[in-house]
Amino acid sequence: MYLPEWIQQFKEPLTEIRLINGTFYKYQVKYVYDKQKKRSAKKTICLLGKITETEGFVPSSKNELRLRNEELPQVDIKTFGVYNLFSELMKEEISSLGTFFDEEHTETMLSFAMMRWAHQTPIKRAREYHSHDFCSELWATKSFSDKIVSSTLKYFGENRQAVVAWMKTQLKDVPDEQNFVLMDSTHTLSVSENLAVNAKGYNPDFDFDKQIRLMYLFSAQMKQPVYYRLINGNITDVKSMALCIHEMNVKNKVVFIADKGFFSTENIEMMKEEELSYIIPLHRNNSLIDFSPLEKQNFKKELSYFLFQDRIIWYYSYKNGDYNMITFLDEALRIKEEKDYLSRIETYPENYSREGFDGKLNRFGTLTIIYDIENQINIEEKNKKEKKKPAKEKKIEQVIYESYKQRNDVEVMFDSYKNCLDADVSYMQNRYVMVGWLFANFLAMIAYYKLYSRLLQAEQLSKHSPKDIIELSKAIYKMKIRNQWRLSEITQKTQRLFAKIQIDYLN
User: Fold this and answer.
1) What angle do CA 495, 496, 500 make, to 5 degrees?
2) Residue 476 and residue 80 in contact, taking contact as beta carbons nearer than 8 Å
3) Which phi and psi (to 5°) does residue 275 adopt?
4) Do the Cβ atoms of 140 and 130 come closer than 8 Å?
5) pLDDT tens, 103-137?
6) Domain shared by 261 and 395, yes or no
C-alpha cells in the first residue's frame, strides 16, 4: 500500500500501517510459520494507535491499558526470606552472570529461576509470585509478565555459546588434579507436538512416551551440577557424551559413572572409540568377576584396604582380557546382607535356602568395577613429574571407589530435579524456550545443592531438608512503613537455624 511521505517516519520493524476508512492505523505484527501454506504468514498482534498528519501518532487507550497491566503492581508487604536466601547462596553465580549477559535478561532469568526453586512455578504464574516477592524491588523492577519471561528464556536458549562459556567459569577455581567430573543423564517426558527433539525412547521406568534427555556434568569436588545439555529423546548416552565433553572442554576431567545395567561389549567398544573414561559396576553374577581371592583362608593378608566413611573397604585389582577390574569388599555390608539372606530362608523358603547361601558366601558385600580412567591417571603421573603433591595422595582404587559412590549424589540431583522442581513433564512448544527453561532449572538446582551442602556442613540434614529451609524462608516478610521497608518479626529459633547455615536476616 502507498504511504504518503509524512507518514514514513512512523514505520518500525514488526509493525504495519493500514489505511481504514480514510484514517491511518498502526498495528503490531509478527511472522509465524504456516504449516498448511508451508511459508511464513503475517499475524496481527494488537492495535498500537492511529496516525494523523496534525497530531502524529496517537496511542490506543486499550494498548496503554494492556501495557499498564504488565507493569508490576504496588505491593506493600513482600516475601523477603526467599530472595535473601537465594541471593546469598548464589552470590558468585549472580555476579558472574552479569558479565556474560545484559542486565535486563539476567535479572528476569534470576527472578524466574528463584520462582522455580521456591515455588516450582510455571511461566504463567511467575508474575504473581514475582510481584509479591522482594526481588521485584531489585530485579526486573519495571515489568514482568509471562511474555517477558518466555522472551527471556528464548534469549538464553538461542545464546547457547554464552551459556556454555558461563558454565565453564564454574570450574575455574578447582585444580585439574582435584576435580573429578561425573557424567550422567535423565529423561523428562515432553507432550509437545511442536518440538523436534522429543521422541520415543528407552528409560529405566519402561515408559516409552515422547521424552527428551538431559545430560549433566556433576563436580565431585564442588558437589553440584556444572553443565547441562538437551538431547533428543531417542539418542543413547554414549553417542552424546563425546559432544558434551567437547563443548565443555573437560576431556581430561570427565569420567562416566554408569549403573549396573550399562555394561555390554558394544557399550565398552563405543566408549573406547570416543576415548571416554568410565567406571562401570557389574552384577555379581557376571562371569568376568574373579572371586577366588576371597575363597582363600586368611585372604585379608593378600588384600589392600582403605577407610571410607569410617568403614574398612578391602580390595584387589586384576585384569580379565582387556578389562581393568577391581573387586571391593565392604564387611559391614557383607554382615548385613548375610543376615538379610538368612532371615529370608525362614520367611521365603521357596526362594531362599542354605545351599543358596553357601553359593553366595564369597559374594556378599562385594562390588566389582570395570574401569578405564587413563586421563585421570595421566594427570597424576604429570603431577609427579612436575613434583606437585596433592593434598592427600590416594591410590587409584580408592579414587575409583569414592567416585562411584558419588553417583548417589548425581541420582539425588535428578530426583530433586523432578520432585523438588516438579519438572518431570514439560509442555514447552518452542525448542529455544525449552532450553532457556532448562537453564532456569539448572540455576535452581545449583541453589538447591548449595543449600544442601550448608545443611551438611552444619550437621542439620537429619533434622531439616533443603525444602524445609525454603519453606521457612517464605514466612519472612518485609513491610513498607512510611515508605521504608521493615523486616517482620523472626523467632529466635528460626534465627539460630539460619545462623547455623550462615544466612543472616538481621542485617
Assistant:
1) 115
2) yes
3) 55, 45
4) yes
5) 999 999 999 999 999 998 888 899 999 999 999 99
6) yes
Question: Hey, what's the cell of 215?
Answer: 545430560
Q: Is the dihedral of CA 185, 188, 193, 194 positive or negative?
A: negative
Tell me the DSSP string of 210-265: EEEEEEEEEETTTTEEEEEEEEETT--HHHHHHHHHHHHT-TTTEEEE--TT---H
Domain of residue 84 covers: 78-158+430-507
Report yes or no on whether pTM surpasses 0.85. Answer: no
Of 371, 397, 413, which one is at a domain's C-terminal end? 371
Indicate the residue among 328, 352, 371 that finishes a domain: 371
Number of domains observed in the structure of the chain:
4
Residues 192 and 101 placed together within one structural domain of the fold:
no
Going by their DSSP bridges, the two strands 56-59 and 210-219 should be labelled as unpaired
Distance of alpha carbon 87 from its chain centroid, rounded? Answer: 18
Question: Which phi and psi (to 5°) does residue 57 adopt?
Answer: -85, 130
Per-residue pLDDT tens for 342-360?
A: 999 988 888 889 999 988 8
In a domain, 316, yes or no: yes
How far is Cα 125 from Cα 119, in angstroms, rounded to an integer?
10
Question: Cα(152)–Cα(158) distance, rounded to whole angstroms?
Answer: 10
* Phi and psi angles of residue 87, each rounded to the nearest 5 degrees, phi first: -70, -30
Distance separating alpha carbons of residues 2 and 19, to the nearest angstrom = 10
DSSP characters for 339-373?
HHHHHHHHH-TTT--HHHHHHHTTTTTEEEEEEE-
- 142 and 88 inside one domain: yes
User: From residue 52, how far is each of 10, 26, 55, 209, 318 by CA, in Å?
Assistant: 11, 11, 5, 56, 88
Helix, strand or coil, per DSSP, at residue 311: strand
